Amino acid sequence: MRERPILFSGPMVRAILEGRKTQTRRIVNPQPKNRRGGRWMYCYESTNKKDEGSFSYSWPDKNGNCCAERGWESQITYRCPYGQVGDRLWVREAWAVHPETGSLLYRADDDALENIRWKPSIHMPRKHSRILLEMTSIKVERLQAISREDALAEGTDSDPAAVDPIGSFAKYWDYINGVESWETNPWVWVVGFRKVEA
After folding, report:
1. Residue-wise pLDDT tens digits, 77-94
2. What is the pLDDT of residue 64?
3. 162 contacts: CB under 8 Å, gap ≥ 6
4. Whether residue 175 sits in one domain with residue 87
5. Residues 164, 188 share a domain
């Protein structure tokens, strides 16, 4: 089991703390070229042990063969940068040290304190993280393939009866990743997780 950091915005930190967020989508980098007949495969077993636990994007070669073994021209192997099922992610969020008490403050808590110099989430050290997540699932899919249930698991809308949770998620995706980023429909890592005691 390994631990890695992961960044979350204030609204998503609140959703995790409230138990509404149990999934995150992150862009696969680099994006595979869109190929006719292309498909993702998870490697459970391989003659090359380095490939076990990785994902392959394969497409038919000139003879129509599609292979998940490394070394084929028609195959790219990716390892999820966030880890494997069972690994842990410690959450980085915007934070500060209270100037008078020295206690830790978290911007996501919405404590409207004045004169606080918030530090960006990227600079949060492990010892200040208050949220630890255990990865429960990993898959790769097109961003727009998100289901209604998965959109709710993303935590963007606190109302399970929301008319359009996918629309809410798409709007938030554009807010975080830039205007019209939803429309590009990239391949994304879909990481399922559960909160564990830090």
Report:
1. 678 899 999 999 999 999
2. 53
3. 152, 168
4. yes
5. yes
